[in-house]
Amino acid sequence: MVENRVKVKNNKLNEQIEQFKNSLSDIDKYEKAAVYNTDGTVFLKERAGTINEVIFTPNEYMQMRGKILVHSHINTGDLTDKILSPEDLFTAAYFGMKGIQAITKSSVSAFSPGIVLIGNTGMRNQFINDYENILYDGKKRVAALAENAKEIDKVIFQTAKKMSDYLKSNERKYGYKYEERGVFD
Fold first, then answer.
1. What is the chain's pLDDT, residue by residue, as a tens digit (185 residues)?
2. How far is CA 160 from CA 78, 86, 174, in A?
3. Structural domain includes residue 5
4. Closest by CA position to 61, among listed 96, 30, 89
């Protein structure tokens, strides 16, 4: 199990995130999510979702400004099993969250959008569009390989690596923070 490297200067919050991670199971069939205040108190208690999303009401999303959304990604064989999806990044920036984390038993991927992506719609759209294009190109390559499982795994890894590299290389340009641990171990 990987330690949650993405630390916030709040022991209570770190404890809450650790408890959330420890509640995950290798056999989970659905994502889970919880939302925390920056002081570590629970804003929205843990809830289950579907195989690839946890649903919140529009009102709940509007109240997430300045909060931290922690959710699990399950092993579906998809390109975004261990890394944040474009929807994750958009949600955090659009709703002005302090941060979002995607957690598995062996990895943590965390994003804090920053003022540029929260306040500048054009830059936010460009950032998300570029990131989605990397994912789309990977999905096209996977589809073209049909049944060649070994090559598909290679393309999935390469695409996830490109997505990770994009997030790491654009922090300064877009003014956000990104960290990961255990994603490519």
1. 344 444 456 788 889 888 888 888 766 788 999 999 999 999 999 999 998 899 999 999 999 999 999 999 887 767 678 889 999 999 999 999 999 999 987 788 999 999 999 999 999 999 999 999 999 999 899 889 877 778 888 888 899 999 999 999 999 999 999 999 888 87
2. 10, 12, 20
3. no
4. 96
- 57 class by beta-carbon count within 10 Å (0-12 exposed, 13-18 middle, 19+ buried): exposed
Range of the domain at 77: 11-181
Closest-CA residue to 86 (of 54, 22, 133, 31): 133
Q: Specify the number of domains making up the chain.
A: 1
Question: Would 4 be classed as within a structural domain?
Answer: no
Q: Is residue 127 part of a domain?
A: yes
Answer whether residue 3 is part of any domain. Answer: no
Q: What is the CA radius of gyration of the chain?
A: 16
